[in-house]
């Protein structure tokens, strides 16, 4: 393909009509045709076989087409269509050498067919068509190129070409006939042929000049006048310099396909020609532009996806935010698109722009996930930072609403800055959605924190209320009386007011709406009422114990809180009545929840039905008793009922049963006390004793010795009395007292005698009057011992009284 001079050529279409795709691709790369844009021209040559076409082209353009060896005779050398680049001509000029047209070596039909096809191809592709002809054929009816011209004109009609092709007739082997004479004859011949060919209706009157610029040049014989030939060719060569300039041989650029699309365009044209279809060049140009622009776009897209810078950016975007992402990506995209613009510059503008748009869309679609990833990172990062900062602000003591406002504003603007840094200039991607998401997340978090804080706050208030209410309510219920519930109501109202006013102040820093605020305040109020209610219910559950406590307090203790000693003077019945009515009062207080100031007749009902002194059943008391068999109180709703009438009745019954024993015990204790304290015989016995014992009394008065004896007897009796603790022994009854005394009597006498003996021995051993006390002295000692026993006996009596109090307790 290459020659020494740097020219290269390739067979574009072989003699069988096959297009050499690989060959032309390689050729294009070698001559760097794609870089030429529209600055290139295509020249082809047609003419009879062995008419020196290749020789002319090689001299004219410095190509290396195979020439026939003059010494071997005139046989076909050029087969099919060959393509070469001219040497030393600017702009780049492609030269096509076509197979000769005389058909000496092909069958008539084949020849004609290939001739026609190659002629059509040459006309479709070329800016300048050289028609090689022998000088001696001018004006001849049987000229060799006459059928060729006819073919050229006929196929021209099928091209729908919007441009004028230059037809340059090269007269070879010019004779001595002056050129000025030859040219008009030739033009006449051409006109005749043009007129003779059948034309479609639209071109019936169209002159030849509308389709072609006809040029005529004459050259001397190469074989005979080589020098002149070369000079003439050199001058002709000059006309091919800057041929694409306006007015040049290839000045009409309207149908030119950009150089990078030449291969494809030629391929497609040949395909259409081979299929014998009509060749619409304008449409073909659009088609070529479409395919080529698509190819360029694909290539640019491919190189973008492999672009190192982009790959790094994409990877970084998936891992986290990338500073300057938008700028960097815009630059890479811009570079890619401008490369496309440069390469597709010369293709049809409509197609080019459409394909550019498609490429841009494809590129943007490709980079969008990275952008979205950046936004996601930005959104989540901003949200995390917001949470952290918000938390810090709240812990730092900043008010909730102030912290919310300042943190939201600053982090949303931080996000906006990040967005601005990430957006690319090629497209205005909507970041509102992700912004809205961030705002939504922030609001959601604020709402959560607010809810938690409010819950914490409310819990704190509830704990305070609980503390402030439970104890006092307990105390108030403990002393249940007429003013218990008013006092509880007052306490409740006071605490609620206090808590609500403080909570209202606290809520003002949370930016809560009116509805939420009211709800929270109502919740707090309900809670306070709930505390009281639960306490009251709890106490109602223990009412029986409380009633018994109250009863015991009033029954077993006096007004000075001293334990009662049932001496016999107390009116147990009255005390019991008082204690029970106080317990009944407690029951009536505990029977219902009276947080709202509403009247009820529970107390009245209970005292009428259960109170002391309601023994005689009247019609009204019967009705009240019936009411106690119910589950509800009149005027009291079920929700406010702590103890139902039936429960009250049952509780009262239980209470009475359990306290009756205490009363019985008290009565027994009182009876016993009475018995113990009454030692005098009955009055009749005293009178009888006085009457019957009058004589003995008188005798005693008359004889003082009896008195002494009686006195001693009294002392002994008294000593025995104390010694045996007679009152105590008889407290448990006469018979047990006698049995107990009988068991103690003998040991006590023995003990007494033993002591007397010991005292006598001491007196005998002493021998003197001082040391031997008289019986009177002994009796004194015994008396002393007796006194000490007496004091111990009296202390034991006190203990026995105290024991009696404890019991009565
Ligand atoms: N008489 C004459 N012969 C020429 C001229 N130029 C070339 N020849 C001779 O014509 C013969 C054919 O030359 P080519 O250049 O191969 O002709 P061709 O038209 O390319 O031949 P094909 O490719 O086979 O159609 C050669 O022997 C040339 O020496 C010329 O100007 N006049």
UniProtKB/TrEMBL annotation:
SUPFAM superfamilies: P-loop containing nucleoside triphosphate hydrolases
Keyword Phosphoprotein appears in the UniProt entry: no
Chain residue ranges for the region called Disordered: 767-809
Transmembrane found in the keyword field: yes
Location in the cell: Endoplasmic reticulum membrane
GO BP terms in the entry: endoplasmic reticulum membrane fusion
Entry coiled-coil feature ranges: none
Entry GO CC: endoplasmic reticulum membrane
InterPro entries associated with the record: G_GB1_RHD3_dom, P-loop_NTPase, RHD3/Sey1, Sey1/RHD3-like_3HB
Molecular function GO labels: GTP binding; GTPase activity
Primary location: endoplasmic reticulum
Residue ranges, Lumenal side: 702-704
Residue stretches spanning the membrane: 705-724
Residue ranges that the UniProt entry lists as topological domain Cytoplasmic: 1-680, 726-809
Compositional bias per record (Low complexity), positions renumbered to this chain: 789-800
Amino-acid positions noted as binding GTP in the UniProt annotation, renumbered to this chain: 47-54
Domain named GB1/RHD3-type G: residues: 37-253
Topology class, membrane: Multi-pass membrane protein
UniProt keyword annotations, A-Z: Coiled coil, Endoplasmic reticulum, GTP-binding, Hydrolase, Membrane, Nucleotide-binding, Transmembrane, Transmembrane helix
HAMAP family according to UniProt: Sey1
Similarity section: Belongs to the TRAFAC class dynamin-like GTPase superfamily. GB1/RHD3 GTPase family. RHD3 subfamily.
Protein task: Probable GTP-binding protein that may be involved in cell development.
Name this protein carries in UniProt: Protein ROOT HAIR DEFECTIVE 3 homolog
């Amino acid at each position: 393909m290459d020659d020494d001079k740097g020219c290269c050529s390739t067979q574009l279409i072989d003699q069988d009509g096959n297009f050499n795709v690989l060959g032309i691709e390689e050729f294009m790369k070698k001559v760097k045709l794609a870089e030429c844009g529209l600055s290139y021209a295509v020249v082809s040559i047609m003419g009879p076989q062995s008419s020196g076409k290749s020789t002319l082209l090689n001299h004219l353009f410095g190509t290396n087409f195979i020439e026939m060896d003059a010494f071997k005779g005139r046989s076909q050398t050029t087969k099919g269509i060959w393509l070469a680049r001219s040497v030393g001509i600017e702009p780049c000029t492609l030269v096509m050498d076509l197979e000769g047209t005389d058909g000496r070596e092909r069958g008539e039909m084949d020849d004609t067919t290939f001739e026609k096809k190659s002629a059509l191809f040459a006309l479709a592709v070329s800016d300048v068509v050289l028609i090689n002809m022998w000088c001696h054929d001018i004006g001849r009816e049987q000229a060799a190129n006459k059928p060729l011209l006819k073919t050229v004109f006929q196929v021209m009609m099928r091209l729908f070409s919007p441009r004028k092709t230059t037809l340059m007739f090269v007269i070879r082997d010019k004779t001595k006939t002056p050129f000025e004479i030859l040219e008009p004859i030739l033009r006449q011949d051409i006109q005749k042929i043009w007129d003779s060919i059948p034309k479609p209706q639209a071109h019936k009157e169209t002159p030849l000049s509308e389709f072609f610029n006809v040029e005529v040049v004459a050259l001397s014989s190469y074989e005979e006048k080589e020098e002149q030939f070369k000079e003439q060719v050199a001058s002709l060569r000059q006309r091919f310099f800057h041929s694409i300039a306006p007015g040049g041989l290839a000045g009409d650029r309207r149908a030119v396909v950009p150089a990078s699309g030449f291969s494809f365009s030629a391929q497609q044209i040949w395909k259409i020609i081979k299929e014998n279809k009509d060749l619409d060049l304008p449409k073909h140009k659009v088609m070529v532009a479409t395919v080529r622009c698509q190819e360029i776009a694909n290539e640019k897209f491919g190189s973008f996806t492999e672009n190192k810078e982009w790959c790094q950016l994409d990877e970084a975007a998936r891992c986290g935010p990338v500073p300057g992402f938008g700028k960097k990506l815009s630059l890479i995209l811009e570079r890619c698109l401008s490369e496309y613009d440069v390469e597709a510059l010369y293709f049809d503008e409509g197609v080019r722009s459409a394909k550019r748009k498609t490429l841009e869309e494809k590129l943007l679609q490709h980079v969008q996930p990275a952008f979205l990833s950046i936004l996601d990172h930005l959104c989540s990062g901003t949200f995390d930072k917001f949470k952290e900062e918000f938390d810090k602000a709240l812990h730092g003591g900043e008010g909730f609403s102030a912290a919310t406002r300042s943190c939201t504003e600053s982090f949303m603007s931080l996000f906006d800055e990040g967005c601005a840094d990430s957006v690319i200039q090629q497209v205005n991607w909507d970041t509102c959605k992700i912004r809205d998401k961030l705002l939504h997340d922030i609001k959601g978090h604020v709402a959560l924190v607010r809810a938690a804080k409010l819950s914490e706050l409310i819990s704190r208030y509830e704990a305070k209320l609980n503390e402030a209410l439970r104890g006092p309510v307990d105390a108030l219920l403990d002393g249940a009386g007429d003013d218990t519930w008013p006092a509880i109501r007052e306490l409740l109202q006071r605490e609620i007011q206090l808590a609500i006013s403080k909570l209202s102040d606290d809520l003002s820093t949370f930016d809560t709406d009116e509805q939420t605020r009211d709800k929270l305040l109502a919740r707090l109020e309900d809670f306070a009422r709930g505390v009281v209610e639960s306490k009251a219910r709890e106490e109602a559950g223990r009412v029986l114990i409380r009633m018994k406590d109250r009863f015991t307090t009033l029954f077993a203790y006096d007004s000075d809180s001293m334990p009662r000693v049932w001496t016999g003077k107390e009116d147990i019945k009255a005390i019991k009545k008082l204690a029970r009515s106080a317990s009944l009062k407690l029951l009536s207080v505990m029977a219902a929840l009276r947080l709202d100031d509403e009247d009820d007749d529970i107390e009245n009902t209970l005292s009428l039905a259960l109170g002391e002194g309601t023994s005689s059943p009247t019609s009204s008391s019967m009705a009240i008793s019936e009411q106690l068999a119910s589950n509800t109180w009149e005027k009291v709703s079920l929700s406010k009922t702590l103890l139902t009438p039936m429960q009250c009745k049952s509780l009262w019954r239980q209470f009475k049963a359990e306290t009756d024993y205490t009363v019985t015990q008290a009565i027994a204790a009182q009876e016993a006390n009475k018995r113990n304290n009454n030692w005098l015989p009955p009055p009749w016995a005293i009178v009888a004793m006085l009457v019957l014992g009058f004589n003995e009394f008188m005798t005693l008065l008359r004889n003082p010795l009896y008195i002494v004896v009686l006195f001693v007897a009294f002392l002994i009796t008294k000593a025995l009395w104390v010694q045996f603790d007679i009152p105590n022994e008889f407290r448990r009854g006469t018979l047990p007292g006698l049995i107990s005394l009988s068991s103690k009597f003998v040991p006590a006498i023995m003990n007494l005698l033993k002591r007397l003996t010991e005292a006598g021995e001491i007196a005998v051993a002493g021998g003197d009057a001082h040391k031997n006390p008289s019986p009177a002295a002994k009796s004194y000692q015994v008396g002393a011992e007796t006194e000490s026993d007496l004091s111990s006996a009296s202390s034991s009596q006190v203990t026995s009284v105290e024991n009696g109090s404890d019991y009565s307790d």
